[in-house]
Amino acid sequence: MQPNYDNLDSMNIIILNCGSSSIKSQLSVMPGHEVRARVLIEKVGLPGSLVHYHRHDGLELSFQQAVPDHHSGIRVLLDLLTDSEHGCIKGLDAINAVGHRVVHAGEKYSGSVPVTADVIKALEECIDLAPLHNPPNLEGIRAVMDLMPGIPQVGVFDTAFHQTMPPHAFLYGLPYSYYKTWGIRRYGFHGTSHRYVASRAAMILHRDMESLKMITCHLGNGSSMAAIVNGKSIDTTMGMTPLEGLIMGTRCGDLDVGVLLHIAGKESMNNSDLHDLVNKRSGMLGVSGISPDMRDIEKAAAAGDDRARIALEMFAYRVKKYIGAYAAAMGGVDVIVFTGGIGENDVHSRQRIMGGMGFLGIDFDSKKNATVRGKEASLTRPGSKVQVMVIPTDEERIIAEDTFRLVSK
């Protein structure tokens, strides 16, 4: 039965992010975005599944429980939320909607949409474009349909924000027929994060997004940047897959395709071998030989490890290069935003990236930068032509807001 939302002042909304072997979720009360609980389930479908539960009043639970699939995991999540001792709602009928983070919608959707049979079919058709991500996203949707029949669901897509890119930015230099037949083009990812921090930056600066040229830098184990003009993405560093663009924790980033052809010939590698090489054994891990974690590499570099130093320089150089490229593409830049695990917390990476950028009109304040970890802050001096900011991302807020807006209609 479809719930009745007439005259409803608030909604309990579950936000779901189903990964290949994890379920991240939270229960938010909208429109105030009060987070009542967070649940993280690790090692879904693997031995030793772990469940972590955090309630808004500080109660925390962690325990092992067999979670053979996403359906079982969502059942565990719902049982926790409605548990008579540890839960935060009285029953499933108190849940008004579910919002899903979905990685890939191809060209099918340029914004968030209510989940329907047609939407599920469209996401199934995009599995070839995101074989590791869309299947668990779909499993989460189907589990909710089974466990809470009739509950409204909303899909919020990583790719949607970048659907405003023009053809000259999203097409590759390949025969056009590959785009028309197989959808070979740049799609971009982290769109929900880029959208949130861009809108938040405009709000902090008391500016209309439609008057700004912005570069948003989502830097973490997976990293991407976006060029945003008048609130719309016009370019982004990730491509058809999350491999393109910046060097990342284990992904190689931009690479001459001829290198792969050469390596495949020399080492008799097949497609699976090459996929493993560029996705799991490259990036900061491959260059440093130490770790994909920037903190480990920073320690090694400080101790004199030359490969660690080079890896750090490569990371900063790629980000700096794209800032210059995007400033040129937009005809200038007003705001640069750092977010993601590295962008929010790594003062050394931000310092390396912003060093020597005064020619763009950036008056970077190194003293401010050295004190900023995981909080909203400006990193420029008063009068700087370009504002540089740190804004912790909040993709869950966007998912909750979109779900509330669409279900309220």
How does this structure look, described?
The chain has 15 helices and 14 strands. Mean pLDDT is 95; it is low at 1-7. Helix 6 crosses helix 15 and helix 11 crosses helix 13. With 409 residues, it is an alpha/beta fold. The protein folds into 2 domains: 11-157, 2-Layer Sandwich (Nucleotidyltransferase, domain 5), CATH 3.30.420; 206-395, Nucleotidyltransferase, domain 5. The longest helix is centred in the C-terminal third of the chain and has 25 residues, at 306-330. 38% of the residues lie in helices and 19% in strands. The chain is globular, with a radius of gyration of 22 Å.
Q: What is the second-level CATH architecture of the largest domain?
A: 2-Layer Sandwich
Give average pLDDT, whole number. Answer: 95
How would you write the strand order of the largest sheet?
5-4-3-2-1-6-8-7
Order of helices and strands: EEEEEHEEHHEHHHEEEHHHHHEHHHEEH
Please outline the helices and strands.
Blueprint (H helix, E strand, L loop, with lengths): L10 E8 L3 E9 L3 E9 L7 E6 L4 E5 L5 H13 L14 E6 L10 E2 L2 H9 L8 H14 L5 E5 L9 H4 L5 H7 L8 H14 L8 E6 L5 E6 L2 E5 L20 H11 L3 H10 L2 H6 L5 H9 L3 H25 L4 E5 H6 L1 H8 L11 H4 L7 E2 L8 E4 L4 H14 L1
Parallel strand pairs: 1-6, 6-8, 9-12, 12-14
Antiparallel strand pairs: 1-2, 2-3, 3-4, 4-5, 7-8, 9-10, 10-11, 13-14
Helix pairs in contact: 1-3, 6-15, 10-11, 11-13
